Structures are given as C-alpha cells and as structure tokens.
Amino acid sequence: MFVNQYRESLLNSVGLELDIQSAQDNRLTLSDGRVVKDFLAQYGALPFGHNPDFAIAEIDKFIKNKEAIFVQPNIHKKVRLLAEMLSGQIDKEKYTHCVFTNSGAETVEAAIKFARLVTGRKSILSLNRSFHGKTYSALSATGSNRFKADFIHDDKLYEHVDSEDLAEIKRKLESREFAAFIVEPVQGEGGMKVIPSDTLSSILKLCKENGTLSVFDEVQTGIGRLGAFCAATLYSLKPDVILFSKALGAGMSPIGAMLYSNELYLSEFDKKHSSTFANNVLAATMGIAVIQHLTKDDGKALTHVQEVSHCVDECLEQLSAKYPEHFCWQGAGLMRGLEIQDSKAVSNVFINFSQRSGGLAYIICSFLLKHYGIFTMPLMSRPCSVRFEPPLNVSKEDIKTFFAAFDEVCNLVRNGRYDVLFAHLIDMPVTDLPPPSVSYPISVNNNIAQIKAPIPQLVEGKKFAFLIHSTSVNEFAHSYCLSIKENYTAEQQRQLGNWIMQISAIDFNPDIAVEFGVESSTAYVNGMLLFSPISPEDMMALPTKERAALMKEYLDLAEKNGAEIVGLGAYTSVITDGGNSLVNNRQGRILTNGNSLTAMAVVEGIRSMLTENAHRQTLAVVGARGSVGRLSVTGLAHNFGRIILVSRPNKARVLLSELTKALLSSVLKTHDVIQPDSVMDKIRKWLFKQNPGVTDARVLHEQILEVIGTLGLEAIESYEQSLSQADFIVSATSEGKPFLNTHYLKGSAVVFDAARPFDFIRDGNRHIYEGGLVHQPEKVTYSDCNLIDVPAGVNLACLSETIAVALEGVTVHQSIGKSIDYNDALAIRDIARKHGFIPVQYTRNDQGERYEHVA
C-alpha cells in the first residue's frame, strides 16, 4: 500500500525517508536510535517544534474535560476567541470577520471565492515564483509551473507578474479585471524571496484605487516566523484580506484562517461557504495556545526570533564572504533559502543538470542528514536551493551547528569534490577519498564550445534544443566530473550510475544540461541540450499519457528557453513515432529526429571502406524497419550486390515487402549514384527489361516481391545465419540494450552500430564502429566531454542534423517518421555539408588491422 508512492520512492532513494519513533522540540529520534536535528519544521508548521509542552498541556486539559471538538453549525466560544485574538494582533477595529479552514490551500480557495463574490470579477492576479497550494484555485494562482499540468489548473482566469515590474502591475490592475491580487510577503517555495515593503505598499495602494482586493498569503510568514506576528504587522500594512495557517495549529492540529475587514462583509459568502471540519474547537484551542505562547512575557518568543535571526544573518554573511562564487541566499527571519551555484560546472552535463533540476539539492540534504544528523529539504521552485526553516525556539548553538555543516558543503562544491558529496549514495566511506581540502577542476577539457555572441558578418540561425536522456550506465559515467572519475573505481562509478538510473525511474523531469554555440562559414547559432536521466527501458515502459507528458515537458522547456528548432535524440524519437505525434505541437517548435543524417553518416562511412568489389559483398542490416535502418538499406543498395534484412521470427515476409517497396519508390528518382551490379542497379534493370509497360505501383510491388531474392535482397529470420554471411553489418534497432553477440561474425566483417544504447555487446573481441559520426565545423566538444567517447570535433549525426538545420534556418519539420524519403535525407546531408558537418570517413591503419577516422 502506498500513501504517496512518488514521494516515498524518491525520499527512500536519496536517503531522506525517516522512520521517526518520537519527536520533541527540534529533535527527531529515529528507530535506529539516531537523534536528528530538524531544520524543516514541517515547512514552517511547527512554530515551537514537535510536541511543545504548552500545547500538550492544553490537549491534556481538553481531553480531561471531555470538551466537544466538532459543534457545527454552532460557533464555539473558543473559536470566536481565536478570531478575536488574531484580529487583535493586527487591527481589531479593521479586521472584524474571520473564516476558519483546515489548511493553507483551503484558506486560499476561500479567499478567491470571497474576492469573486465581493467584486463581481473572476480574474486573479499573483506573482511569478509564488506558491499558494495545490488545490485547483490555489494551484492556478501559484506562479510556478513545477506543480502544474494540463487539466488541473486554470490558465485563463489567473495571471502572474514579476514583483519588480510595478508598471506592469499597475497596467493590469487598472484594467479593473481582477478580483484579487494575492501576494506572499516572502515567497516560501520561490527561494524565500522577500518582497520589499515599499512594493507591498504600492500593491495595496493600486489595489484600492482599482477595486481589487489585496490579499496577503501569510501561511508561512504568519505567527512569528519573521520576528513579528506577521509581515503585515512587521511592515505596518493592512491589506484587505490576510491568510494564516501552518503555525497557527501549534504543530498539533491543522487549521487555517482568513481575516477580512467589516466593509467587505457579504452575507452571500457566509451562506455559500462552509467546511465540515472548520471551526473545530481543538484546533481553535491550539491556535489560542500558540498566540498566547508567542506573545506572553512582552513577546519574549518574538524577541528570541529577532535575536537568533541576527545570528543567522551573521552566519550567512560569513558564508557569502567565504564563497562568493558558490553561495547566495534569500529570505528573512527564520525562513531562508540557501542556494548553491557552481559556475565552473555549467559545461558538465551531470553536475549542471543536477544543479538546475534540483537533484543536487536533494543530495546535499541527504549528505547533511548522513554526516551531520541535520534534516531539511530543498526548495522546490528554486534550483539547487536548500530550506532553512527551523522552529522559532531554535537555539543559537543549533544554528551554528547547521551553518558549520553547510560551510563544509560549500567547501566541497568550491573544491569540485562531488565525489565526497555523492559517496554516501553508494555506501562509500569518505575516508577512502582524498581529504576535502584537495581541490579538483570539474574537467580538464579546454575545447568546450561557448555560447556565441552576435557575429556581424554571419547570419544568425534559429536557436535549437536537442533532447537527450540516459542511454546506459557506461555512457552516463562518461559525463562524470573529474573528482568522481579519478577517485571512484570503475565498479563504484557503475554503482553510482545504477543509483542514478534507479532514481531517474522515479523523477525524470528534463532540464537544461548545457548551453553552447556553433559557427559555420555562413551562420552561427546557439542552443542547448535538454536532458532527462530516464533510461530507454523506463522510457519505453511509460504509459502513453506519461510519454506525452514527458514530451510536453521537453517542448515546454524548449519554448521557455527560446528554442525554435527541437531535435529528438535517442528514444524521444522512438516514443513519438519519429516525431509524428508531435508535428502539431502546441508550442509551435520545428522538429527533426536526426535520423536522416545518422543514416547518411552510416552510408558514407561504409562507402569510404568499400572497394570496386562491393557488388560482390554482402551487407546485413538489423533494424531495417526503423528510419535509420531503412535509409541505410536504401543508400547502401546503391553499392552492395546483396543485402540481408535480419528479421524477427515470422516477420521476414512483412520486412521484405516493406523494404522492397522503399527501394522501388527510390530507384527511379534517386539523386544518388547507382553502382553497377548493385541491388538498386538490378532492380532498375528488372523494371526496364522485365516490366517496361507496368506503371501501377501496387502491381509492380507484387511482381518484384516474387523475384526480389534474385535481385539481391532477402530477409532471414536468424541472427546467426544472417550475420555470419555478412561482410558489412549495420545495426540500428530500438531494443534499448545490447543483445547481439560477435562470436558468429566473419573474421573480416565490419560492424557499424548506430543504436543508442548499442545493439552489439562490447566484449573486447571485435572492434565495433560507432554508427552515425560526423565531423563538426569546429574542433570542440559541446560539453566538457562529448556525449560519446570520441575526439573533439566529432559528434553524433542526430545532434549534428539538429544544429545544421538550425544554422540553415529551416521553416518546416525535417526527418519526421519512419518512412523518410531518401532524396530528403540526401538534402539534409547537403545542408549539413554546407555548414561543415561532414560524415566521418575511414581508412586502414598502418598495420592494416582496422579502419580509423580520417581527420
């Protein structure tokens, strides 16, 4: 049984799932006896930690007196008292009405309903990066897309603005379309961004002038977290509506409250709004107790928050001064966002993606828990940010303990010591590693492509995004930073890769991996690699709806970052039928799946190895039904005299029929050179000599299918039988894992493996050529290492096709589907050549043992 399968699986994978046996103040006692310091405080819902004595005493008294908890429709005196106490902390003359709820999100829902009824308007305005809850209206008001998906929020009646753009705020409010402008004074999930008091004051003024209700969402900032009762009292501001929740329940009972002024009262709202468990007496008792505890002894608890906040400020200033390039922070009081940034890692796919996606923040939290007994969590809407939100009664000693530990995290990041940060994920003792003081660069590559500034003499192409994902553990290890490559054994690198693959099956949201620019003789262009850690097996196992959701996330990300052209790398092409399912994408991106240039690179690579005897040689193709395989068959049928299509059991006739049809459609219109006695040459002669008068394509197909074996094309339902006869082999399946052995190949056979992951098992006994490699216009890599293990200036054809058509500035989709016309593929090859992308050619090495790249 799962309660939240995603969250449970994620926290288990990163080592943040706690088996808590008991809790007191900010100490959590785990089932294994460890005591952990809590700096999360249930996202601010535990104002005085776990099980505070004053709250326990009130609950004991409540139970002993057998007080009623639920008394609807009556309003219990304690409920009324709590309302009066809330109002009294701000302005009892102004805030004369209170609506109680059960959570922060429900409180926001009530406020939106209330504002619409009062104003007669529907639209709601809020800030970008805000968070107001995950129920329908609250999520719609939230200014972050992280928690949104189609059908679960309203993108028509809710608009968002930047807090810094007062001119835009003024323009929107003056439209007089908005019922409410809802604002968090400190954006909790948005990185703990503080909205300046003068901005808040201007918002209140503009709202009043334009008939829009001003709403302060103080679900997190309320009840003492800023060192005042709430932000409204801290800044002496009085919005129309103030929302409370979280800490109001003293960490013992869920409760929320909406305060509003007398002049806004509307009986219709009272008639049409209620909540079964709102107004419950136990929750009100907790609310009364927490306000009393917060304000007793002349506000001693609030004074403590102010004092320890100064201690926090000092710690943060020290970290900022010590790590100016790697650390920054936002926030106020006891709600802070601590952000790690490693600008030296922006060209490393592994680390940069981890930073941008938030994955590194989870690992940092896991590291703090494992090595320092500190529990906290990331900020979900701010990349690589960690939450500091302890109980209000946290001690200065605990604060210093926390920041001493965080200092070590900053030091590790500054020194490139991700090997230490990640070691606990594979149960590797950090004592096995060099001391943390030893520094490592992220990589030692000096040939990394950089983003291009405008080049006046060149045409600017269309910005591109190429979609990639994990294809194998070995390839992922290729992108590790230097400290991991040097200090982990091959087995430990494999273990880390397996851990990444495991967690990627749980959370596989894509993000930017690297950004770079490319320059040809006539144009320049900038682009990015968008990466998801998901494996081919897990991607193929996704239900149809989740596949569509993943591709939408990719395309939304491309659109958000200004990419006009999107290349479908690896299995993003497979799960979209070669891009067919995306051609009408609502983001309006131009697509290519990269298969044309991949196939042409295979064709031209093999042609560079051929002699005049190619018509006497045999080619075998595995995966001929796919677009790369089909184009490879078509292209190499211009050269080889015999081609074997390697078929699955009981599929030979279908495969032979499809490929015969493909060759028939190309033979009379091909722009390529047909060599004498090749399969294409035989088919052309058969057409001219045997059936000169037949023009019906269906009849021709049926007739030639009966004799196609005599023309050099056949299908065999046995890998061993097929491959053992071949002089050259092309493999381009979507199997998702290596499955072909080399032991039954001819000794002289040449194998081109264009599959990602590879189809052939690399056993070290045979050299397998990487299918689909292309020389680049510049001798650079597009991250601190190539996506595959090839030299700078060489890369994958699928990526190269995306860059080439972006440089060309194409306006229509390219290489879509499985049945790509061969002449269209030739046209893509020519565009690529124009911009300096040349398929890799091969020559025999000095020993004559195998072929090597021609530089």
Automatic annotation (TrEMBL):
Pfam families: Aminotran_3. PROSITE patterns: AA_TRANSFER_CLASS_3. InterPro entries: Aminotrans_3 (IPR005814), Aminotrans_3_PPA_site (IPR049704), Class-III_PLP-dep_AT (IPR050103), PyrdxlP-dep_Trfase (IPR015424), PyrdxlP-dep_Trfase_major (IPR015421), PyrdxlP-dep_Trfase_small (IPR015422). GO terms for molecular function: identical protein binding; pyridoxal phosphate binding; transaminase activity. CDD domains: OAT_like (cd00610). It comes from the Bacteria. PANTHER family: ACETYLORNITHINE AMINOTRANSFERASE, MITOCHONDRIAL (PTHR11986:SF79), AMINOTRANSFERASE CLASS III (PTHR11986). This is Aminotransferase class-iii. It comes from Photorhabdus asymbiotica subsp. asymbiotica (strain ATCC 43949 / 3105-77).
